[in-house]
Amino acid sequence: MFEVAGALILIGSAGALGLLVARDYARRPYELRAVHSALNLLETEIVYAAAPLAEALEQVGARAEKCVSGLFLKARAELGAGAGTTAQEAWECALTQYQANSHLRPEDVVVLEGVGKVLGTSDRQDQARHLRAARERLHALTQKAEDEARRNVRLWAYLGFFGGCAAVLILV
What we know:
The protein is 85% helix and 0% strand. The protein contains 6 helices and no strands. It has helices at 2-48, 53-63, 66-79, 87-100, 106-118, 124-171.
């Protein structure tokens, strides 16, 4: 009786680990698409609505997907703190906090760091050009992440459960 329970616990634990790794592969493309859409909203707010940067960040934070809205709202909060914080400093602070809880990889974050370097430093057309360039890089990274997800999500899900079964067979 205890042997069967132990085997089921081992298979379930290994399967859960596999599903956790698979979830990371599946979430990255979703977050990249959400960031892409949010940068599109930011460009709209800056270029067409001619909103000041703090207001534009707040609007994007309110309308973007929940998984990325915190990045824009935190940048808005840092910018509005009134401590002489520049837009780049506010963006970097928000990005550091966002990165800790996201599924983005360092190559994704580098693109977002580039966005922070141009926010509020030039005219609307130049910022729009930089935002379009960042979206193009994110689009390429999204396609690469989708390819990785297609290959690895199912692999890790099965590998976890079959690894647990293999461990049980070895122990029996």
